[in-house]
């Protein structure tokens, strides 16, 4: 079959490769001038630092098959994300752990004592948290919530934490030991030569071709038997029903001679500081040595039509609109909507790869059984 894939990010690259392995002819188009989608990395010409151009990316997964898949293409160096936060004039350790609790409250508590202590701080009147704020008040209490989550979340999402689902906070653990690893996952690492090298290796396969600087046009579909779409779901339909809401990021670059902040990620919890965090990219590659440093202040705001969509908002209004687009997509034969934009979900890289592998397998299975391809890689609602 002749297959068109829109988007040369992880979704398009993995599906393209898997289908080419099965003997199909896969052509990928991307409007950008590079492969890799939002995982794209490049070396800074001046400092030599590997830059995560669309924001910092740390690979973490519990999925053995996905880990074997990525490490089969390029070398990964063990890397654990250890985030700090500046709030109310002090620096603390994240995610909230025993060091954070002891330093913040000026205590020397042991694990069980800290658990008891936070239980006293917690608002136990809230039985079932209905939103982000209630979740925080219920589990860490007002002081930690106001220092570390309230201001940051208002800046990140542009709304009150009372209007956000509790699930967003559930992504962050609270630990009653001194483990400050941001993630729980078994496998955590950074590709030694960057994510672009990973995607390049995935694409390096007979039967896969790529055209960059090539936005999709509906006439293209006529030349192919099937289309995999990893662009924005609403974009496929020309935004005819309106635009699904996204947050976008502005990155303000600055350089520093030496070590600017001593860690890769420093969050800023105070509402008065306009950015959410500063990332210093040479610390994402601690095995490299660079005298000069490149840092980015990260500002979040509502995405306009010409902005890069980063975080799907998925609040009530967007979910209603999403339902309408899902109905349109379900009525569109010959197209499978995939990836974080195609299914309007926040997806980490490991989940993106897992879904891409499953989507390709499902497509081949249906083809062999003479059944129609699925319209979505995963139901977005
Ligand atoms: P994308 O990477 O967005 O690729 C889609 C591609 O489609 C793009 O290249 C785009 O140019 C192209 N395209 C869109 N429309 C068209 C069109 N009309 N015509 C042609 N081409 C088009 N995950 C982690 O696991 N760890 C992290 O630490 C992490 N950090 C992140 C930080 C930020 C700030 C963000 C936003 C995401 C982060 N992620 C992280 C998630 C990661 O970026 C995604 O999992 C991954 O990029 C999804 O790949 P994709 O191929 O689905 O989408
Ligand atoms: N968060 C916060 N303060 C922090 C870090 C995170 O309030 O210092 C909140 C914020 O609302 C964020 C959510 O917790 O969206 C999930 O955090 P995570 O680090 O997973 O954010 P993401 O990777 O989505 O940017």
Question: What would a concise description of this structure say?
Answer:
With 381 residues, the chain is an alpha/beta fold. It has helices spanning 10-21, 64-71, 98-105, 111-121, 132-139, 141-157, 167-170, 195-203, 233-236, 316-330, 339-342, 349-368; strands at 2-6, 25-29, 41-43, 50-52, 59-61, 76-78, 84-87, 90-93, 187-191, 208-211, 226-229, 246-257, 265-268, 277-280, 292-302, 311-312, 335-337.
Set out the fold topology.
Elements: E1 2-6, H1 10-21, E2 25-29, E3 41-43, E4 50-52, E5 59-61, H2 64-71, E6 76-78, E7 84-87, E8 90-93, H3 98-105, H4 111-121, H5 132-139, H6 141-157, H7 167-170, E9 187-191, H8 195-203, E10 208-211, E11 226-229, H9 233-236, E12 246-257, E13 265-268, E14 277-280, E15 292-302, E16 311-312, H10 316-330, E17 335-337, H11 339-342, H12 349-368
Parallel strand pairs: 1-2, 1-11, 2-10, 7-13, 11-17
Antiparallel strand pairs: 3-4, 5-9, 6-9, 7-8, 12-15, 12-16, 13-14, 14-15
Helix pairs in contact: 1-12, 5-6
Keywords:
single chain, 381 residues, alpha/beta, Rossmann fold, protoporphyrinogen ix oxidase, domain 3, 2 domains, 7-stranded mixed sheet, 5-stranded parallel sheet, 12 helices, 17 strands, binds flavin-adenine dinucleotide, binds uridine-5'-diphosphate
If helices are DSSP runs of H or I spanning 4 or more residues, what is the number of helices? 12
Overall, the morphology is globular
Report the average pLDDT across residues.
Answer: 97
What is the helix content? 25-40%
Q: Can you tell me the number of structural domains?
A: 2
CATH architecture of the largest domain: 3-Layer(aba) Sandwich
Low-confidence regions: none
Query: Radius of gyration in whole Å, from Cα?
Result: 22 Å
Strand content: 15-25%
**Major sheet description:** 7 strands, mixed
Distance between the termini: 30 Å
Query: Which fold name fills CATH's third level, the topology of the largest domain?
Result: Rossmann fold
| SSE pattern, N- to C-terminal | EHEEEEHEEEHHHHHEHEEHEEEEEHEHH
Bound molecules: flavin-adenine dinucleotide, uridine-5'-diphosphate
> What's the count of strands?
17
Which class of secondary structure composition applies to the elements?
alpha/beta
Tell me the CATH superfamily of the largest domain: NAD(P)-binding Rossmann-like Domain
**CATH class annotation of the largest domain:** Alpha Beta
């Amino acid at each position: 079959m002749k297959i068109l894939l829109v988007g040369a990010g992880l979704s398009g690259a993995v599906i393209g490769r898997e289908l080419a392995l099965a003997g199909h002819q896969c052509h990928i188009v991307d409007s950008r001038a590079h492969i890799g989608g939002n995982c794209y990395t490049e070396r800074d010409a001046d400092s030599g630092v590997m830059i995560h151009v669309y924001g910092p990316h740390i690979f973490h997964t519990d999925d053995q098959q996905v880990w074997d898949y990525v490490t089969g293409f390029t070398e990964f160096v063990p890397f654990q994300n250890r985030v700090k936060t500046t709030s109310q004039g002090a620096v603390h350790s994240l995610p909230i752990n025993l060091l954070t609790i002891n330093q913040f409250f000026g205590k020397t508590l042991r694990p069980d004592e800290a658990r008891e202590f936070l239980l006293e701080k917690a608002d136990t009147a809230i039985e079932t948290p209905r939103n982000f704020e209630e979740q925080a008040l219920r589990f860490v209490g007002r002081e930690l919530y106001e220092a570390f989550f309230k201001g940051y979340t208002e800046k990140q999402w542009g709304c009150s934490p009372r209007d956000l689902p509790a699930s967003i906070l559930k992504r962050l653990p609270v630990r009653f030991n001194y483990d400050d690893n941001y993630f729980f996952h078994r496998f955590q690492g950074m590709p030694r030569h960057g994510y672009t090298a990973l995607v390049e290796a995935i694409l390096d396969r007979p039967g896969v071709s790529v055209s960059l600087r090539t936005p999709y046009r509906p006439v293209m579909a006529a030349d192919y038997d099937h289309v995999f779409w990893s662009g924005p779901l609403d974009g496929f339909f020309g935004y005819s029903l309106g635009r699904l809401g996204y947050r976008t990021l502005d990155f303000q670059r600055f350089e520093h001679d030496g070590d600017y902040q001593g860690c890769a990620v420093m969050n800023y919890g105070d509402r008065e500081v306009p950015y959410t965090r500063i990332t210093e990219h040479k610390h994402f590659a601690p095995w490299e040595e660079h005298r000069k440093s490149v840092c980015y202040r990260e500002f979040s705001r509502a995405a306009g039509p010409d902005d890069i969509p980063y975080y799907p908002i998925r609040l009530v209004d967007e979910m209603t609109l999403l339902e309408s687009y899902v109905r349109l997509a379900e009525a569109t034969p010959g197209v499978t909507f995939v990836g974080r934009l195609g299914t309007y979900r926040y997806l980490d890289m490991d989940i993106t790869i897992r879904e891409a592998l499953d989507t390709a397998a499902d497509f081949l299975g249906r083809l062999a059984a003479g059944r129609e391809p699925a319209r979505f890689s995963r139901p977005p609602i």
